[in-house]
Amino acid sequence: MNMFEKSKQNFIIVVALLVLVILFYLLNPNFLNEYNIISMAQSLAPYAILGLGVTFAIATGGIDLSIGTVCIASSVVAGKLYTDGLIPLWGTIPVMVLIGGLFGLINGLLVAKLKLPAFIATLGTMMVSRGLSAIIVNAPNVFYPTGTWFNSLFSNNNGFPSGILWVLGFMVICMYIMYKNRVGRYILSIGSNEEATRLSGINTDKYKIMAYVLTGLGAGIAAIFWSSSFVTVASATGSGMELDAIAGVYIGGTSAAGGVASVGGSVIGAAMLVVIRSGLNFVLAKYNVSVNSTYVTYVLTGVIVVFSVLIDILKNKKKK
């Protein structure tokens, strides 16, 4: 996919996002009140960064189902070390990133070296990270402090959702890695045709491992924003977060078959899901519809993902 096609695709997704925002506003003007805008921006940050990270794994033609539980595992283990007085608050940041990177490395080795299917390998580490972190922490909840530099820097700075600036910064970095650096070019080449890439002299195992490490680092970084936004973090959770992040990546235009990645689209896709989730809450509440908005969100997200992947398949068939 060339830059023109990427820009065109992102423009279409942005237009769809704006249409959703206008629709929900018309159905319930309270949707765009100041509090809800800040709330949506805060909740976007961890999901957008999870999406940015997993874009690299999906670009290889793989997937990572462990990012949600790894995100929460990173948060609760770092939080436990902090609350026990073993590390200062700033020390939780490298701990979360290192835990995410470690699980990413494990996933990469399982997929690249042991040749396990990505679905099976990451399903296994999803369960391991969820259970192991709960055993280590040995508490139902971990608590982060409120009203500190940690919250202001990564979540809410006097009413400004500071996490959004970080998301934009990480998006630019991921764009550079994916499109301007050989790491990203080789990752996309693996997704397009791994055997041809290997025969051209590229160490495909090395770059596939790097893709999963980047995905794991994304989960660790997302944990920082989750911890600063939701100061009570429950152990042994995170299942389902990966589905939202992966859905946003597919909606954003990254090919499920690999070889095509839209980094900016991953952020826009995540924003679309946040808007849908929040908008449905307001609409159903206004019209007194006795249906859980979460379940409706699942239905709509599923339909949108299937539609997005179907378009991708049809597009690939036309190219052939």
How would you describe what is shown here?
Helices cover 74% and strands 2% of the residues. It has 320 residues and is an all-alpha fold. The longest helix has 27 residues, at 293-319.
* Portion in helices: over 70%
Average pLDDT confidence is 92
Class inferred from helices and paired strands: mainly alpha
- Distance between the first and last residues' Cα: 14 Å
Shape: globular
Strand order of the largest sheet: 1-2
Q: Can you count the helices?
A: 13
* Sheet with most strands: 2 strands, antiparallel
User: Are there runs of 5+ residues with pLDDT below 50, and where?
Assistant: none
What would a concise description of this structure say?
The protein is an all-alpha fold. The chain contains 13 helices and two strands.
Write the layout of secondary structure elements.
Blueprint: H1 3-27, H2 34-59, H3 67-83, H4 92-112, H5 118-137, E1 141-143, H6 149-154, H7 163-180, H8 182-192, H9 194-199, H10 204-229, E2 232-234, H11 241-251, H12 263-286, H13 293-319
Antiparallel strand pairs: 1-2
Helix pairs in contact: 1-12, 2-7, 2-8, 2-10, 2-11, 2-12, 3-4, 3-5, 3-10, 4-5, 4-10, 7-8, 8-10, 11-12, 11-13, 12-13
